[in-house]
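Hey, I was hoping to borrow your eyes for a little while. There's a protein on my desk that I can't quite get my head around. The fold is given in discrete form, as structure tokens running alongside the sequence. I'd be grateful if you could look everything over and explain what you see. Here's the protein in full, and shout if anything looks odd to you:
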Amino acid sequence: MKVTIIRRVVQLAVLVLFCLPPLLAGWGVFGLFAGSDEQMPTPADGVFFGSLSSSSVGGVTLFDPLAALEVFAASHSLELAALVGALLVLVVYGIIRSRAFCGWVCPVNLLGEGADWLRRKLGIAVPERTVPRRTKLVVAAAVVGLSALVGFPVFEAVSPIGAMNKGLVFGGIAGMGTLAAVLVAELFFSRRIWCRSLCPLGGVYQAIGRAGQVNVAINHEACIHCDQCKAACLADPVILEPAVDGDELLVRAGDCMVCGACVDACPTEALRFQLGRRPR
């Protein structure tokens, strides 16, 4: 089975997972609640509830690491529960591969792939890259700095990730303008510009991405240098070049989302997933 099919199932399952708590509590999605004469449980009473920014799982609160940094900067203080919750998320994704969040969980990436499909159907040609992918590291630092300056988490107020996730669960509209702008830019300006180059959360995960234990490995004897893997790459084709050019046996860049697009695209099965950082 192609990796992309499995990834689609996971992406949709994540969206459904966040919708389940209000549905199981007798509420609805998009923040809808019909009301009742009887006392009803709130979604927060269950084992799991929240959004991609902040969730409670079995009484343990988990935080998006960028959101936690913004809150710390805005409040000029450290809250132990938020720190622990953010570190738990970082450790889990760090062990797998940090930007696996972007490839397998983030709803904006799912929409971005939809924009890729629509662009192909409409025959719209856009540049492969227009902004350096490391720009998102600068954007992440700027977001934290600005949060400290103005006293509130600025990215959370305009996050396209929150627009889709929180809108579906809570019915909020914050970030919808950003999400619309991202989709327009994806369609008409540059392929994957948000996820590759501008998303500050992607920048946080990129910074620690090289430590991940799930990696794409290459068999140089099977590689025919057709570059189909680079054409399919969702992160940035340049991250594949050291492996394809014969200098590396693994894709080591912290930007790799382990999305499997390159693995699926390879006609000779020269690319595969591998556990661990040591070449085999």
Q: What stands out?
A: The longest helix spans residues 3-24. The longest strand covers residues 214-218. Residues 1-27+50-212 form one domain.
